[in-house]
Fold:
Amino acid sequence: MNGYLLIPAAGSGRRMGADRNKLLLPLLGEPILAWTLKAAIATPGVCWLGIMVHPQDRADITAIVAALHPEVPVELIEGGATRQASVWAGVQALPQGADSVLIHDGARCLATPNLFHRCWADLATTPALIAAVPVKDTIKEVVNQKIVHTPARDRLWAAQTPQGFHVPLLRAAHQQSLENGWEVTDDAALLERMGHEVAIVIGEETNLKITTPADLAIATLILQSRL
Ligand code: CTP
Ligand code: MG
Structure:
């Protein structure tokens, strides 16, 4: 298995309200990003990591990577103004020979090696996939604080990362989105717009994205229960 992985980490963490990129904040004594990287590095078959970073975080993230003593090459790539732009920068920096790639948000620091492994394994036969879990809440579509629609819950899944793609397909999707000015919040949505099928890998209920201080508190409890 050739496990290439791109980690978008070039955000600012505006919704966290901290004075720096949320990925640098401590979680049980280590930066959030360190937990994400540890799980990725511990996955059998991982062969290369690319981390998209904001220039102002480069020194901090270099130190985080060095402290982990990774056995695989880790490259820091300058990210862009949006997650989509950061991913595109990462795709362009993939080494020759990377036929398929997983993309995993730096902010999803509770994903386990088992999830990375299952995604890489499925990529051998599936050109586009994402981790997702069935939603537990009933979801309402709301306009001006009024409900306009209640979609059937049994068809609703919450998208997570990793999201995995065969590289030529992912390149084509990003190129088409640049030409058409599509703006989306995940890579699967680009493929969907192209009319391409995207498969689901069963995600992990604990694979939350650290977005607000409440997420940080929940992640602390989950990690403590694992240690
Ligand atoms: N990301 C990125 N480049 C950007 C914006 C986001 O690489 N220009 C990354 C973030 O670092 C994060 C992931 O994409 O790991 C998911 O984004 P999100 O959770 O929205 O993080 P932020 O954009 O940093 O947070 P916020 O939206 O609250 O500002
Ligand atoms: Mg964001």
